[in-house]
Amino acid sequence: MIIRLIRVELLKVKRSLALLMMLACPLMVALLCFGLQLKTYKTGLIRWDMYWAGSTAIWGYFMFPLYLALITGLLNGNEHRNSTWRLMLTLPIQSRQLFLAKFVLAAVFMLGANLALLFMTSCAIYVFGLLGFSISQAFKFDFVRFMLFANLSALPILVFQHWISWRVQNIVAPLAVGVIGTMGIVQIGQSENWIYYPWSYVMTALNASSADVRHQAIILASTLAACALGILTFWIGRRGVEFE
């Protein structure tokens, strides 16, 4: 049943604003990094490891957490706006199944945004090559590690933002939570208390200098996300669907 629900949800988001945001947010980061790099370097030598580090830092610090708040708000907001929650639940499906299907859909959009960032950053590097810059060392970036660490470390944010946007009809509330959470990364993410702040896990997993710290962020994020998703799914099934 959940597989069928996911297929239905995928059909509903074709040509939607959510799909546009999945491409627009990574594009903004790629263009920003391209412009900054082009303005800074006048020679044909670019530290490509620093270029990738800068791109992932901007993504992990600011754009990615905000994107998760936006995308979950849009995916669930469509149902709130069109008053289709109760219509869907008149079908032979459970609220838990619908909640999980929506979460999987949001996870697909999260994965797609990270893939889009890698693709658009790579395209920007090829443009540098056309402009005469050396790109011989540009693609030694660990793409697999980025995809694994970025998606796993962001799961707690995705779970929490999905639940907020599910419960609250007004899309402003989930976006406000996302903005506040993102603002806290600058202060808490750089302190020893980062382990208590799920919004800091992405940046720590992607850019921490210590491999042990990066792996700790992944373990914390995966454990917290699994526990939170299980508890919230169980809670929704017990209480039924109530929206504020």
From TrEMBL:
<feature type="transmembrane region" description="Helical">
    <location>
        <begin position="171"/>
        <end position="189"/>
    </location>
</feature>
<keyword id="KW-0472">Membrane</keyword>
<dbReference type="Pfam" id="PF12730">
    <property type="entry name" value="ABC2_membrane_4"/>
</dbReference>
<feature type="transmembrane region" description="Helical">
    <location>
        <begin position="98"/>
        <end position="131"/>
    </location>
</feature>
<feature type="transmembrane region" description="Helical">
    <location>
        <begin position="217"/>
        <end position="237"/>
    </location>
</feature>
<feature type="transmembrane region" description="Helical">
    <location>
        <begin position="143"/>
        <end position="164"/>
    </location>
</feature>
<feature type="transmembrane region" description="Helical">
    <location>
        <begin position="16"/>
        <end position="38"/>
    </location>
</feature>
<protein>
    <submittedName>
        <fullName>Permease</fullName>
    </submittedName>
</protein>
<feature type="transmembrane region" description="Helical">
    <location>
        <begin position="58"/>
        <end position="77"/>
    </location>
</feature>
<keyword id="KW-0812">Transmembrane</keyword>
<keyword id="KW-1133">Transmembrane helix</keyword>
